Amino acid sequence: MKVVVLGTGDAFSKRNFGTSAVVIGPRGQVLIDAPDSVLRAMAAASRSAGIDVGPMTIDDILLTHLHGDHVNGLEAIGFLRWLEQRATGRPIPRLHTTAPVAARLWERLAPAMDQAGTANLADYFELHVLPTGSAAEIAGLSVRHRMGRHTIPCCGFLIADGSRTLGWSGDTAWDPDHVEWLSQADRVVHETSPAPAHTPVEYLNALPDGLRRKMVLVHASDDFDPSGTDIRLLRDGEMLDV
Ligand SMILES: [Zn+2]
User: Fold this and answer.
1) C-alpha 218 to ligand 1 mean position (Å)
2) Ion ligand 1 — residues with CB < 5 Å
3) Which of 59, 151, 190, 239 is the most buried (most CB within 10 A)?
4) Domains in the chain, number
5) Please, what is the angle between helix 74-88 and helix 99-113, to 10°?
């Protein structure tokens, strides 16, 4: 399984794009979260990773939570695909997320996207609530989710293609049960940033060798010191082999 890493920064980064990625599934590309400047991040990653990812190549979006550094890019994608649908009839993207995020997503987007009350969420995205306790089939991938510990509802993902599984922590404070759940994966992408909303790297440094070796980091602050850990921080625009 291949994953194009769009960004690795935290909400305040002046150096890196916000944390997000595109999973290359057997039947399509799946975007995980849509930070600010996601169109520029996708264009830059297309060049560096050598595979075209962009608003017109992605028909499925997974959303972890409603913080701006994970959803501010939805407006641009939504408007682009709304225009595309009107011009060519191409279906709008499917957006998959948890029930609490689905319940408030339009509240987040409406002031910018309701077109004076004439448009609603279904004009931009085909909303799918992720099932609890079972997997969703998305672009030929099996996707399970689990809520982490964040200041607002936020989930992580286990994404499997039948031979390999990617673990994606989402934003979470240190949560040993979440890490245990993610450890089923062949590769775990874990966030790191200061407590209390996030996971300081010291907790991850104390994990068993085998788990640490299959873990990589995202969502780091600009002053993150990579010499403080043997877990590799991903780079914006790299192709990650799961
Ligand atoms: Zn967050």
Assistant:
1) 12
2) 67, 171
3) 190
4) 1
5) 70
Going 226 to 231 to 236 to 238, the CA torsion angle's sign is positive
Ligand 1 centre distance from Cα of residue 191 (Å): 10
User: Ligand 1 centroid vs 181 CA: distance in angstroms?
Assistant: 20
CATH assignment of the domain containing 30: 3.60.15.10
**Overall pTM surpassing 0.70 (yes/no):** yes
